[in-house]
Each structure stands twice: as C-alpha cells, then as structure tokens.
Amino acid sequence: MVISMEETKNDNILKDNTQEIVELIRSVPEKKERLNDYHENDIADVLNILTVDERKKLYQLLGLDKTSEIFSYLEEDVGTYLEELDAERAADIIESMDSDDAIDALEELEDDHREEIIALINSEAKEDIDLIQSFEDDEIGSRMTTNFIVINKNLTIRQAMKELVSQAAKNDNISTLYVVDAHGLFYGAIALQDLIIARDYVDLESLIITSYPYVYADEQIEDCIEYLKDYSEDSIPVLDNDNRLIGVITSANIVDLVDDEMGEDYAK
Known about the structure:
- It is a single chain.
- The protein has 14 helices and 6 strands.
- By secondary structure, the chain is mainly alpha-helical.
C-alpha cells in the first residue's frame, strides 16, 4: 500500500497534537484556557494515554459540558471511563450528552452500573433515552437524536429569535430550526441564516420551507437510507405516525448508517 505525502502530513499533525495535549494536561498551570484551543475529538484521543487520576482531574478541569462532548467522540472504552467515575458524576455526563450518544455510552456499561446510573438521570433525559430505545434496531427512530430546535409557525421574527436563544442553551443543533403548527404537527423548516438576517417586519411564514424532507420513526433503515443520502442537510426531521416531530437524523447519524450499510454489503 502506498502512503501519500498528504496522509503522512495528517498523521504527523495528529501525533503532534496528541503529544502537546498530554504535556499540557500534565504540566502547564493555565491548562484550562490552553485546552480550549483543542477540538474535543483530539482530547478524546489522548484519554487512553492518561492515568485514571489524570483523567478525573481533566474532567474536573474542563467541566461537565466539555467532558460530555469528549465522551461523545469516544469510539471505544467509553464504558471503562464511565466505570472509573462515581455514579452521580457518570449520570451528569450522560445527561449532558445527546440522547443517541448517551444510549451508546450506557450500552457499554455492566448491567448493575447501568441501572444505577439510569436511576440517577433526570426525568427529561430518561424520557429521551426511553423514546429512542422504544424503536427496534432496524427502525430509523433508533438512530435519531432529540437535539433540535422547534418553534411555532405563528411567532414573529423577534419571538422566534428569542425562542432560539432559549432552546440553544440545551440543544446546539441549530443550523436548521423546525416548525410546527398550532396543533404541534410538523409544518416545515427554517435555515438559521435566513432567520438571523430577517427584518422584524418580515412574516415568519415567508421563511418556512414547507416541503422539507422528513422520515417516519418506524420506517426501516434499509428502506429510507437512500432517501436520506439524497439530501445534504445537516439534519432530517423524524416524525411519529401522527406527524409530530419527535427527533432528527443528523448528518453524522447518516454517515454512521452508510458505514453500517457498506459493512453489511461487504460481509454479504
């Protein structure tokens, strides 16, 4: 196999980042500000190099939200790292993760520890987890996340912006805002950029894309994967059978689905 100069360059950059992050964690006094310069994925890559005590100090230093983001990028060992923490701290991290990532993390735990942590998770996070787990593994609802912004179609531009700011505190998937009618039924979507530049006197209705693509939660993954691949949106809404918005499939979810599909095709 021939390795290109570009691949070698990227590998060297990754190695340099890894070494820099490890040295930073272990030595520099003002490490928190410096660590914020690195992507969560890069920090996730060095956790296996650190000792248990160093990892615990790192989580304390970075805070809950940053730590949960780092855990979301872990492809393996997430169960091991959660097991190192007391149940309350682990539950806090799970609560701060996107619901789909939280489910993946919980599945890595031993049964007794999983039940202990689930018992400590707040009711809102537990409802989201229970919702996703209510779908079969081959249904698209099992791969969705509840991290999205939803607003009512009858709001003004100013009211919509206020609602966006309020919900963004808990949901950071904000590039597309989803719209429901007075009965809570899915109505369409608004691009964040369009809302930001809209004047106060503009009617919100004029910004709504009412023909926005969507899928139903109980659809088979294999039946809708090609449909999802046809769109380059950051996320696609997922509806229940009453046309109520219950989640979204993000572009990252779609990439994972395509990877799974390719793996299955190769296996066949």
